Amino acid sequence: MVGFGYDIHRLAEGESLILAGVTLAHHSGTVAHSDGDVIYHALCDAIFGALGKGDIGEHFPDTDIRWKNASSDRFVDYAVQLVAECGCTIVNIDCTLIMDAPKIKPYKEIMKANIAKLCNLPVERVNVKATTNEGVGFIGRGEGVAAMCICQIVNESPSNI
Ligand code: MG
Q: pLDDT tens digit string along 138-156?
């Protein structure tokens, strides 16, 4: 099965910019109920999508005080646990970040390593890429950051799902 996830958060001065578990040096960061990690949120939705298990808002409502400032690796942990409970295994993950600044090249390898560790995958099965929005629109103006993620999952025991 294949699942797709998308997430977006506004950027504001004085907030932290955390992407795939890495805190980036930048003057602005994501405005969110949790830590606003758009890559992890898109990843969760890709996993939930592949499993047919709804979306991150259903599993972790932003009205729930428990998830206030929560580290988003908790959400990925939960999604990966669901994969195992369904008798499935993640094959690969491909993420795209859409952000004009800062550049993520110095952080890509650690981002991939973080995702691989959370998802029990060899790092070769994880891809993190980025594109700018060419200065266009709210992302181009630095007002927001978005991420998309696709995840393939195989069912090791088809009777379980
Ligand atoms: Mg989000």
A: 999 999 999 999 999 999 7
